[in-house]
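User:
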Amino acid sequence: MSSVLSPTEALKRLEAGSVEIIPHEKLLEKLSSGKKLTVKLGLDPTRPDIHIGHAVVLRKMRQFQELGHKVVIIIGDFTAMIGDPSGRSATRPPLTLEETRANAKSYVEQVGKILITEDQERFELRYNSEWLENLNFKEVIKLASQLTVAQMLEREDFKNRYTQGIPISIHEFLYPFAQGYDSVPIRADVEMGGTDQKFNLLVGREVQRAYGLEEQVAFIMPLLEGPDGRKMSKSYDNYIGITEEPAEIYRKLMKVGDDLLPKYLELCTDLTPQEIQQVLEKGGPVGAHRVLARLVAGSYALPRIPARLDRELYEEMGYRLEAAGRDSETQAVLIVVAPLTGYSLNVSETVRQAEERYNEVAKGGIPDDIRTVPITSSELQEGRIGVAKLFTLSGLTESNGEAKRMIQNRGLRIDGEVITDPNMQVSLDKPRVLQRGKDKFVRVQLA
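Assistant: Predicted structure:
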C-alpha cells in the first residue's frame, strides 16, 4: 500500500540522511507526477556479504517502496568481470561470471531482510549480463563518445592514480559507461549510491540522454565507516554483517567510537534529530551505545527489519528512550518497561541475552555460548601443539606470525590466563577456551 504523504512530505522523508540529490528539484517533480518511479541500485557481487553500511542505502530504498515505488536491484555480474576501482588505488581483481553468480545468490537472500522482495510491483532483480554481454562494438563506441579523457580523469581515484604514476587500464574507463548503460534498459528514474559512486551515477545521466531518455536523479548516500572510524572491511575486523548473530551485532555496535555515535544513530535508525540529541545528552556515551545496539541488533534479528527503527519500535522492544537512572555496574541509563508485542520473534529476549553476554564479557567472564572447533590428533606432536598454530587453527588469528605478535602484545589468553611465551606447547587433554582481546572466544578440543 502506498503512502498518503504529499510529494513535498515524501521528499522530506526521503532526503533525510542523504548527502546530495542531483538535481534536487527534479526528484520533487518526479514525485509530483503520480508515476510509479523505478529506483535502481547496482550491487557488485565481489563479496557475498551485506553489511550495515550497505543497509544505509537499502533502508532508503525501502522508504521508496513504502511510498509505492519500485526498486530494481541490478547484480553487476558482468561489470564485476571488469573490476570497478572506485575508492581504490589499484584495479579490483575481476571475477568469473560463475563466481559473481554464486556471490549474488547470497546477496539476494540478504536484501530480503530489508527490501520487500515478494511484491513484483515493488521489487525486481536483474543481472546486467542480460544486456551488456550482447552489446556490440558500435554501441560501445557510442557510449565511450559521451565523455572525454579529461572528464574521466576528474574522477578522484583515477586522478590520484594518474598523478601518482599508477597504471590505469583502458578497460577501467569502460566501467562507468557499463554501469550507466544499466539505467537504459530499465529506464531508471532514480539511481542510488554512496559518495564513492557519484561519478558513475552522473555518467548514467549522460548515457540516458544519449539514448533519448529522461535523465535519472542521482541519489547519493553517505558511506558508513566501521566502528573504529576506518572503512568498513573484514580485513580491519570492523565489519558488521546484517545476518550476523544478534549478540555479535550488539557487541560490535558497542565498540562504535563516541565521535561516530551521532552518525550511526542518524544512518542506522529512524530516530529524529531531537531524539538523537536527547539520547546523547541524557544517556551519555554508554546509554547512547545501548540504544543503538538494542535497536539495530533487535531489528536485524527479525526475518525482515521493520519499516522504521524509531522510538515506537524501541518502546515495543521494552525500553524507554528517556533517562531513568543509572545501573551501578554498567552505567546504563535505559530500563526495560514492557514485553515486545506484534512480532514473530521475541526480540526483547534476544536483545536481553545479547546484552547479558556483552556485560558478562565486559566484566571479564567467559560466555557459555561460544563455538567449538575440533582439532585433529594429527596436528599434535606427543600430545601437544604450538600455541601460535593452535590459535590459527581456531580461526582467532590469520597466521602463526600474527598469533606470535599478539602474544608479544599480551593479546591472547588460554582459559583466562595471558600467554607470554610464543613458543609455548599446549596440551589438549581437556577442552581449552582460547580468547583474543576482550571479547572473542573459541573452545578447542580433540576431534
